[in-house]
Amino acid sequence: MAALLLRTSRGLGACLRVATGCPSPSSCVVAAWSSARWPREGAVAWRTHAQVRHYSSSDKLSIDMDDKTGVAVLKLSNPPVNSLSLELLTELAIGLDKLEMNPSCRGVIMTSAHPHIFSAGLDVSEMMGKPTEHYREFWRAVQEMWLKLYGSSLVTIAAINGSSPAGGCLMAMCCDYRLMADNPKYSIGLNETKLGIVAPFWFRDTMMGVVGTRVTERSLQLGLMYSPAEAVHVGLVDRTVPEETVFEEARTEMARWLKIPDHARQITKSMMRKTTIDHLLAQRDSDISNFANFISKDSIQKSLTAYMQALRQPKK
Ligand SMILES: CC/C=C\C/C=C\C/C=C\CCC/C=C/C(=O)SCCNC(=O)CCNC(=O)[C@H](O)C(C)(C)COP(=O)(O)OP(=O)(O)OC[C@H]1O[C@@H](n2cnc3c(N)ncnc32)[C@H](O)[C@@H]1OP(=O)(O)O
Asked: What percent of the chain has pLDDT over 70?
């Protein structure tokens, strides 16, 4: 058991083989471990100096870590719609990594600084009119963000305070719990087919883990966007709350999750997610090539152009 308390600081994907005698990352089922999240002398000393630390140096992302509660707040702030550009994706992956390595950190609340939009998903302009090398780099960054968030050993809660299509929905689905503002104007879902593109297998697998096979199949084929109430009905969101209380409700929910001993919860989370993570890790390069080939096709570029033009039309 003592071996289980070793820190590896690498999220759920890192196998603590020493703990289970597991020979390889791919055959290890329960050994993934990030860090034993018990207070250490160093961490306590750190707390006396500063309770809240600002983590991110980017203006597109703020990360504030409260040393007293062990909870970090990660706020997307990339106007106008929090689209996930290469830069923001990279910042997200770095920020999540830093939190994973901080022994004081036990949970992350992810939310948006924008009043009505959680995230518009991947920045479509990163997928249009660029050279193949750019598409490859972009897609690796999308994968990396997913690996860090889906594979995080921390408690992750999405405080969804606005619309959340496609990649925005993916980020929310990576979290352990989702609260959404009950505003019927907001929507959430994987709408990729409506853009003429295809949600890759790991988007699908993430959704299946949240809502099951049947709802995923219907949602993906039709590119369904759900209102908050519908999202609760299909299980995509755990709970709706009045808009002005989303953040406080997320804090209350976090406190509930933090009552569970970290080691037990982390191993359980790893058991649930490891197969899905390994699936992408095993096919990372081919997934990048598939994306780059697919997105470079003239027909796909035309679809994206038409979609963006339609988006720019005045709304009725
Ligand atoms: C064989 C093949 C097998 C496998 C395939 C292999 C690989 C897979 C291939 C591809 C996978 C790709 C996966 C893609 C995931 C994504 O996330 S795609 C992005 C999808 N996102 C959307 O569709 C959201 C579109 N946006 C909206 O619905 C709305 O903008 C909003 C609800 C978010 C906000 O509405 P409003 O507040 O009304 O704001 P506006 O609509 O006026 O937008 C303001 C401004 O922002 C621009 N914009 C909006 N969204 C995006 C975006 N995602 N990226 C870039 N830019 C965006 C919009 O055009 C406006 O710009 P301007 O007009 O001001 O210039």
From this structure: 84
pLDDT digits (tens, 9 = 90+) for 67-91: 999 999 999 999 999 999 999 999 9
The two structure tokens encoding residue 51: 């309770």
Q: Is 290 in the pocket of ligand 1 (CB under 6 A)?
A: yes
Distance 111 CA to ligand 1 centre (A): 18
In contact, 46 and 105? CB cutoff 8 Å: no
Confirm or reject: Cβ of 192 under 6 Å from ligand 1: yes
Q: Write out the catalytic residue numbers.
A: 122, 167, 191-192
Query: Token pair of 72, please?
Result: 């970090």
Give 26 Cα–ligand 1 centroid separation in angstroms. 35
Confirm or reject: Cβ of 122 under 6 Å from ligand 1: yes
> What is the CB neighbour count within 10 angstroms for residue 185?
10
H/E segment holding residue 48:
helix 41-49
Burial environment of residue 9 by CB neighbours within 10 A (0 to 12, 13 to 18, 19 or more): middle
Residue with tokens 């909870």: 71
Residue closest via CA to ligand 1's atom 18 equals 122
pTM recorded for the entire structure: 0.89
**pLDDT for res 54:** 77
